[in-house]
Design brief:
The longest helix has 23 residues, at about 470-495. By secondary structure, the protein is an alpha+beta fold. It folds into 4 domains: about 10-210 and about 355-465, FAD/NAD(P)-binding domain (3-Layer(bba) Sandwich); about 215-355, Beta Barrel (Elongation Factor Tu (Ef-tu), domain 3); about 490-560, Orthogonal Bundle (Arc Repressor Mutant, subunit A), CATH 1.10.10; about 580-635, Orthogonal Bundle (DNA polymerase, domain 1). Helix 2 packs parallel to helix 9 and helix 3 packs across helix 4 (about 105-120). The chain contains 20 helices and 25 strands.
Length: about 625
């Protein structure tokens, strides 16, 4: 049996460790499903902290926020309340890659989320450092069972499930040139004790690093030398529950400038003082969000790099220098920043720094985000080897939901790659060995035309409703929206237009070719020069429809052929996902499996043939052998 080794403080259902973006979603999910939950943080002032960039969303990340919202999460609602600029990215491209991005008032975002947590029933916020996980060994097998947590003061909280959302705090240290401080982000206290407890449980840890750029004094910058970046005229909310009319407001500006050869010369001359190149940093950094010194070295042919100057909030003069994260010494930082147009006289409020921290290889997790070797222990966020607020929130929500489902004895939530970007994210983490912080990108999603940010509610609201995180009113709203879309598509396909002068004049107006006999309005809409709004001139019978319904109608009609092709691909994908692999399978008993495949399958223990096929080192021939073995096994049973 487990030993308390402290004094019993409370008995709850779920303990969530960490109150960043993952922890907030996990704790809210558990509490909203009626479970007594406590969320631990090293500082209540760091709840939903944004220690790096002051924005939510962006390419592919906006998809994740929309999906979190569709399932009943909080991030989308919170950014809608606290944004200071909003912009839909990639609008010149197809709808599959449109992504919403909003600048946040960082202090407001954190304050608002803290209020949500504090007002939530069944949820307690506790400022304390968790130092130990408490568990007991199973008498039947080698699986451990979580029993509770212990804090630095010796307080014990007995619970039925734990969700680890430690972010970048585990044994964290920040590096700025030769200066090393053993703290978490923004100088906050690091969590230095939990790592040993995790190792004692047999959990394998690794070391990753990320970084952040400097913050500068607004009045020391010359914006006349930069390109102003404005928000959208019509603001689109992140949350499907937010009324678009209520969030239209005056927005603040961001600015764009560039590095130059002088900047790069200073960096190259001081690479020996960079912890990255001096060998001081042990952790692996993110490939797709490199420091400025990494950019200069790896992209030596580039004459300049973009630098975004973004406000940190309405009540501060700090400006974020996006695109120039660094761990160079302070004197080098100041010198290189002052070569950038508009930053010639800049004053640094907070130095750029790199941060190292402990995290896990997420292949130790099931797709439910529960540890394979520890029953009742779940994990989400940067602790799983990912990067980004949005990736963290998505994992935190799924981990929290599945911790609750595990306790309540209900079916877990597992989203596959054809259902959501969240499914792609989690599948990549638990199936593929990631040796650097994982970042979501649209290119990672094979079925991205189906997984658009605009239809996340149509894809996932029903799941959120059945889980219990989406209200009946919200669910009925999406059912009504779906009905309106289907009705309008049917109508447009049924309404035909003739070759009369009225129609010919309309087509000439937009440079469109003459009509074929019996053409429908839907066929006309497929022409690139025409759209739903323009067709209103020859479609007097149409009803007034909401903008989001019109958007869906237009996308579904214009991309119908491509969508149908992807749906056929999904059917094939689903067949492999449905072929489940028994938990007790002995891969040593599967004949003709290659040694590498056997080792990978034994180590990762995939739950389906589909997941097995995505493991590096498992070939199509190995999958064929596995399928034959499973069929024979099924016949014997």
């Amino acid at each position: 049996m487990f030993q308390k080794q402290g004094f019993l403080m409370d008995q709850v259902d779920v303990c969530v460790i960490g109150a960043g973006h993952a922890g907030c979603e996990a704790a809210l999910a558990c509490a909203r499903l009626g479970l007594e939950t406590v969320i631990f943080t090293v500082s209540v002032d760091s709840i939903a902290l944004m220690p790096c960039n002051p924005n939510v969303g962006g390419s592919s990340k906006g998809h994740l926020v929309r999906e979190v919202d569709a399932l009943g999460g909080e991030m989308g609602k919170n950014i809608d309340k606290t944004f200071i600029q909003s912009k839909m990215l990639n609008v010149s491209k197809g709808p599959a890659v449109h992504s919403l991005r909003a600048q946040a008032d960082k202090a407001d975002y954190s304050r608002s989320m803290r209020g949500v947590l504090e007002r939530q029933e069944h949820l307690t916020v506790k400022q304390a450092e968790v130092t130990d996980l408490l568990w007991e060994e199973s008498e039947k097998d080698s699986i451990k069972k979580i029993k509770g947590v212990k804090t630095f003061t010796g307080a014990v909280y007995e619970c039925r499930a734990v969700v680890l959302c430690t972010g970048t705090y585990l044994r964290a240290r920040c590096l700025c040139g030769e200066s090393i401080t053993y703290t978490g982000p923004n100088g906050l206290q690091a969590a230095n004790h939990l790592t040993d407890s995790l190792k004692d449980m047999g959990i394998e840890l690794r070391r990753f690093k990320t970084g952040t750029p400097a913050r500068m004094e607004r009045k020391s910058l010359d914006f006349s030398k930069m390109e102003e970046q404005l928000g959208d005229e019509r603001i689109v909310p992140f949350s499907f529950s937010t009324d678009p009319d209520t969030i239209q407001k005056e927005q603040v500006s961001c600015y764009l400038t560039y590095t130059n050869e002088k900047t790069h010369e200073i960096i190259r001359a001081n690479l020996d003082r960079s912890p990255i190149y001096a060998g001081i940093i042990e952790g692996t950094g993110p490939r797709y969000c490199p420091s400025i010194e990494d950019k200069v070295v790896k992209f030596a042919d580039k004459e300049r790099h973009q630098v975004f100057i973004e406000p940190e909030g309405l009540h501060t003069d700090e400006m974020y220098v996006g695109g120039m994260s660094s761990s160079l010494p302070e004197d080098v930082q100041l010198a290189m920043y002052r070569t950038v147009p508009g930053l010639e006289h800049c004053k640094i409020v907070r130095n750029a720094y790199a941060i190292e921290y402990d995290c896990i290889d997420a292949t130790q997790l099931y797709p439910t985000l529960e540890f394979k070797k520890v029953s009742g222990l779940f994990a989400g966020g940067q602790f799983n080897g990912s990067s980004g607020y949005e990736e963290a929130a998505a994992q935190g929500l799924v981990a929290g939901i599945n911790a609750a489902m595990w306790i309540l004895g209900k079916e877990p939530l597992v989203l596959d790659r054809s259902e959501a970007y969240i499914g792609v994210l989690i599948d990549d983490l638990v199936t593929k060995e990631n040796f650097e912080p994982y970042r979501m990108m649209t290119s990672r999603a094979e079925y991205r035309l189906l997984l658009r940010q605009d239809n996340a509610d149509l894809r996932l609201r029903e799941k959120g409703f059945h889980i219990g995180l989406v209200s009946e009113e919200e669910y009925e709203a999406v059912l009504k929206k779906k009905s309106l879309i289907e009705q309008e598509i049917r109508r447009l396909k049924s309404v035909t237009v003739g070759a009369s002068e009225k129609y010919q004049v309309f087509l000439e107006k937009y440079g469109s070719s003459p009509l074929k006999t019996g053409s429908s309005l839907a066929e006309l809409m497929c022409r690139p020069e025409l759209d739903y709004k323009k067709l209103g001139e020859i479609d007097p019978e149409r009803k007034e429809l909401p903008e989001d319904v019109i958007d869906q109608v237009e996308i579904e009609i214009k991309y119908e052929g491509y969508i149908e092709r992807q749906l056929r691909q999904v059917e094939q994908f689903k067949k492999m996902e449905k072929k489940k692999i028994p938990v007790d399978i002995d891969y040593d008993a599967v004949p003709s499996l290659r040694i590498e495949a056997r080792q990978k399958l034994k180590n990762l223990r995939p739950v389906s043939v589909g997941q097995a096929s995505r493991i590096s080192g498992v070939s199509p021939a190995d999958i064929s052998v596995l399928l034959v073995y499973l069929e024979h096994r099924k016949e014997k049973i």
